[in-house]
Description:
Elements: H1 21-51, H2 76-90, H3 96-122, H4 130-151, E1 159-161, E2 169-171, H5 176-194, H6 202-219, H7 222-228, H8 239-257, H9 266-283, H10 287-293, H11 295-314, H12 324-330, H13 335-355
Antiparallel strand pairs: 1-2
Amino acid sequence: MLYWLTELSDGGDIFNLFRYITFRAGGAFLTALLFGFLFGRPLIDVLRRKQGKGQPIRDDGPEGHFVKAGTPTMGGLLIVGALMTSTLLWARLDNGFVWLVLFVTLAYGLIGFADDYAKVSKQNTDGVSGKIRLLLGFVIAAIAAWWATFLQPEAMQMHLALPFFKDVLLNLSFFFVPFAMIVIVGAANAVNLTDGLDGLAIMPVMIAAGTLGIIAYAVGRVDFTEYLDLHYVPGTGEILIFTAGIAGGGLGFLWYNAPPAAVFMGDTGSLALGGALGAIAVATKHELVLGIVGGLFVVEALSVIIQVLYFKRTGKRVFLMAPIHHHYEKKGWSEPQIVIRFWIVSLILAMIGLATLKIR
């Protein structure tokens, strides 16, 4: 919205700053952060009054989690609210990629909100049926995948870019849309599975979003793509403003989610943020790089899949408990140890993901 202030510029005044994506990204970060600090405590108070007993705690979960009973959930409303506000204020609203990632974020956030509401109102951990959640998730992902192809250059539509290789595009034809759907749905649910300890999910999301934001900025600049031998996708640079909003809103949320958490993100936040990461990866043609940058989420999801499949086949467990962060809880690691070590892993994976821009 504020981008239109450039129309008042003669090229040498303060309004000219609004032409620069980096300046507006900084504004989006600060706006989202301020939103989190201003509305965090009032939102928590409202959630506490409305929810009463807070988020239900699994009976078969780690013993240490029972002390968290009564903690309100749906804290993702704070992140999504900060993200939407900062993006609409600072991004160019004539950019299709901005509306694409906002659509996916809000749509998945609504699915998560419905699931959280069902859990809180019924005071059980079942929530909305998993099949319904997946069905809705795939419908949203299908819309987003088709939308992304129309926004991308014709030569890149329905193609998959390979990291570490110059000018390599695999033509997936109509298989690209199902592939992109899996990326978006998989990212949303992987982040959801990771959100099991205070502060565990939000920092890796911020790290991944920041990394993808840098990639989006680079992919959207023809000079950077020529230097780095990347595929040029005009318009994706504006996604940096969106990811700056995730970082600011995420920090504002972490202020209240730091152990012991005053509020949980809930599916409202985890599904929204995971879907956003998947949508950014599809928009920038970096779907495979997301698997590196978000490697922690991949491992968390795989640990659940492996555990379920192996138990059904043998009646035995590979991990003491899945997702894998609960395995380490059972092994005696403290919650802060797990959270901070997983943050470190996320940062390392982000650096590897950024390296794919140059190693070609």
